Amino acid sequence: MADTTGFLSNLPDNYNILSPIGYRLNIQKLPNVIYFCQTVNIPDLTLGEVIQPTPLRDITVFGDNLTIGTLDVGFVVDEDMTNYLEIQNWMRQLSSPSDFSAYSTLRNEGSGLPETGGQYSDATLHILTNSMNINKNVQLKDLWPTSLGAVDFNVGETEVSPIIVSASFNIRDFTIVSTT
User: Fold this and answer.
1) Which end of the chain has less neighbouring CB within 10 Å, N or C?
2) What is the Cα–Cα distance from 94 to 96, expressed in whole angstroms?
3) What are the tens digits of pLDDT across the range 48-70?
């Protein structure tokens, strides 16, 4: 008779799969974007590498630099474009395209790090169970917008479908915390 104790000891505790529609996003600085959120991701991580020279051939080993990818959000633009303008105004304030008054106002806001004011925002991505209860929280620290997609109009469309715009955010760091 075959020994199955090794096989049985490796069974997972939870057989449910992660649902692609089981999430809620909360970005403190963008309350109107979260209601219309269609897509979001947990940023990717990339661990740097170091070349270790040897007499025969160089060997690649893991490095100590961890690169965090972008938070990418796709959202339906509301009729008043409120959610689109939230991100656009934040980007314009960060870049101060016409004068420095918008940037000064942003720095004096109360959110974000004390030394940076309102330049950054924290966010939480709530990962839900199949029963729609919060299972994990992805806590995103100090994000800021880096790109905002175009709003495309097309009179040739045969059916009215919502306009979805994408936005990307850089973040300083993120952690995944269990809530159960």
Assistant:
1) N
2) 6
3) 999 999 999 999 999 889 999 99
